[in-house]
Amino acid sequence: MAGVYIAYPFCAQKCTYCNFASGVFPRAQERRYLEALLAEVRAHAWEWRPETVYLGGGTPGNLAPDDLHAVLKAIPGRPWLEATIEAAPGAISGDQARHWTACGINRVSLGVQSFVEKEIRRTGRKHTAEIVAREIRLLREAAIGSINIDLIAGLSGQIESSWRESLDWIERLEPEHVSVYMLEVDEASRLGKELLAGGARYGAAEAPDDDRVAAFYEIAVERLAGLGLNRYEISNFARPGWESRHNLKYWKLEPYAGFGADAHSFDGRMRTRNAETVDEYLNGARQVGDLPHCDERFFVSLRLMEGIRPDAQEWQRHDAAIRKFLEAGLLEAADGVLRLSNRGVLVSNEVFAEFLTS
Ligand code: SF4
To answer: Which atom of ligand 1 is nearest to 18's Cα?
Structure first.
């Protein structure tokens, strides 16, 4: 059973660390985008009934009720096993939450990033911890059964005590799922440019170094495990049974269809992707073919803590790299299964890069 991804790259503000092709655009462009998106979804020849739907962004939580309804109505298969909408805390009302449920949404992913006001302000976001708590109550009252909270380790000004404060809020709010991202500052983001220029805006002078970011991440792994939220993927933690069914499709190389700017699709054999920017998408650039790299399985599936079971050819092809990482303690092997060690998780990009070239 396949999944559907809908890209809505519009946000109320541009976060200081963000360099996605998303952000604030003129209203008229958003309208044109929605029309193009709807046309793309409606024109799709559905050969299967989607099992999961994921509205990502950007901030699809800001979609007007009628627009959200129209997009979801064009996707067959309701009720879906899992239908997620990404939302920014600070603008969620009870009416909106009820509308989401009525449209078939049963999972909300909140871009909280931090519960500490100084850190939140420096990202350009406007919520407070209390607002997040109130909105989660509204979501629960509207029968949203699954909530994810995103956190970022490595925000400007973050110190161990403030990081622990954000984790305390996770304990209080009891989400089913938490994503923890280790911030790698993109040089083209506002924060990245400020860092390169040696400036202090957005708290650039107080950005934690890589070692501290890794230490924060490890604190989170331990703390979340204590709360029953187990790490099942490098950045993702869930109570048993609440793992993201949709995102698991990416890591297990199961099929999905993506719609909108920069959306990727995979039919089980061939990968395609839409044009990256809103402008290119509106100009009709669609579906650039892209055959998966034959070693894609290694750097996608290895993200899962359960690891992968390489076949004989894969063991042979990557023999040198596997041996090197086993000796360095970055990979572990047992009963034919290969997985990242706790240390390997912290440098996973380096491990994956080697598999691409070995
Ligand atoms: S981080 Fe998310 S909400 Fe912020 S600008 Fe980027 S896409 Fe938008």
So the answer is: 6
The residue whose C-alpha atom lies closest to atom 2 belonging to ligand 1 is: 58
Of 250, 283, 311, the one marking the end of a domain is: 250
What is the 357 CA–ligand 1 centroid distance (Å)? 32
C-alpha 229 to ligand 1 mean position (Å): 25
Residues 300 and 176 occupy one common structural domain: no
To test the pocket of ligand 1, the residue of 8, 13, 17, 18 to mutate (highest count of ligand atoms within 8 Å of its CB) is 18
How far is ligand 1, taken at its centre, from the CA of residue 259, in Å? Answer: 19
Domain stops at, among 219, 250, 281:
250
CA of 318 to the centre of ligand 1 (A): 37
Residue 137 lies in a domain: yes
pLDDT along the chain (358 residues), means of 10: 94 90 86 96 93 96 97 96 97 96 98 97 95 98 98 96 98 98 91 90 90 97 98 98 97 94 89 89 73 70 94 90 96 95 94 80
Q: Three-class SS of residue 333?
A: strand
Q: Which residues' Cβ are closer than 6 Å to ligand 1?
A: 11, 14-15, 18, 20, 22-23, 57-59, 88, 111
Domain assignment of residue 268, yes or no: no
By residue range, what is the domain housing residue 344?
294-358
Number of independent structural domains in the chain: 2
DSSP H helices in the chain: 27-43, 65-73, 94-102, 117-123, 129-141, 160-173, 190-196, 210-226, 245-251, 278-282, 296-301, 312-317, 319-327, 342-346, 348-357
pTM of the model: 0.95
